[in-house]
Amino acid sequence: DAMVIQNPRYQVTQFGKPVTLSCSQTLNHNVMYWYQQKSSQAPKLLFHYYDKDFNNEADTPDNFQSRRPNTSFCFLDIRSPGLGDAAMYLCATRAGQGASYEQYFGPGTRLTVT
Amino acid sequence: QKEVEQNSGPLSVPEGAIASLNCTYSDRGSQSFFWYRQYSGKSPELIMSIYSNGDKEDGRFTAQLNKASQYVSLLIRDSQPSDSATYLCAARYSGSARQLTFGSGTQLTVLP
Q1: Which of A20, A112, B19, B45 is 20 to 30 A from residue B112's alpha carbon, by CA?
Q2: Could A43 and B41 be called an inter-chain contact, meaning their C-beta atoms sit closer than 8 Å?
Q3: Measured between CA atoms, how close is B3 to chain A, in angstroms?
Q4: Which of A4, A21, A90, A103 is the best substitution to test chain B (most B C-beta atoms within 10 A)?
Q5: Residue A60 in 3-state DSSP?
Q6: Residue B108 belongs to what H/E stretch?
């Protein structure tokens, strides 16, 4: 049974056209992460939430925003995608305080910008 | 800058051999270490975590941690072609309860 679900798995958008990627989890984990991964590179952390506490990485472009309306769902909004934003976007979750620090990834969304 | 370094490879081993993957980290205060396997075009999958110096075994996988040398390794015994993937090393740095820092991965190919 899928525990971290991402939709869509593949997304094609046009240059400058807003796009929203979604992530849901059935693990009831407190912490949710969004990563960007380009080919042959390490996953790069964009944001994370601890419950509703939002944490933005210093080098995350303003073009990227996130929402977490409840424990189960988290969204990544790219307001004006550029060609450089083409990447795999990974959602991950982790249980909260007192638990292990293991992060579990969803299957990812491959974003193509034309 | 806190870093996790891996040899990008590619590392090729014959089927049935032991594959040895290595990782170094820059923050001596790091507490927790993880190995993820990532098949081409897929997301990372957690295969091992290690928190204490020494070895931790799980099936064909053994993680080794040496905090004095700031060194983590992953051994894969009896390597199979299905083990061909990129292996990402990640570390949780001191003072960072929530975040992991990832290396860029080592590409492993197991030759039939």
Answers
A1: B45
A2: no
A3: 11
A4: A103
A5: coil
A6: strand B106-111
Residues B43-101 have pLDDT tens digits of 999 999 999 999 999 999 999 999 999 999 999 999 999 999 999 999 988 766 678 99
Cβ proximity of B73 and B23 under 8 Å: yes
Burial B16-53 (b: 16+ CB within 10 A, else e): eeebebebbbebeebbbbbbbbbeeeebbebbbbbeee
Res. A100: pLDDT tops 90: no
Q: Give the integer Cα–Cα distance in Å for B34 and B73.
A: 10
Q: Which two tokens stand for residue B92?
A: 């949780």
Q: How many CB atoms lie within 10 A of CB A39?
A: 9
Distance from CA of B33 to the nearest CA of A (A): 9
Task: Name which of B1, B47, B98 to mutate to probe chain A: the one with the most chain A Cβ atoms within 10 A of its Cβ.
Answer: B98
For position B31, what pLDDT does the model report?
84
In sequence order, the β-bridge partners of residue B3 are none
**Closest in B41, B46, B103 to A102, CB measured:** B46
SS3 B83: helix
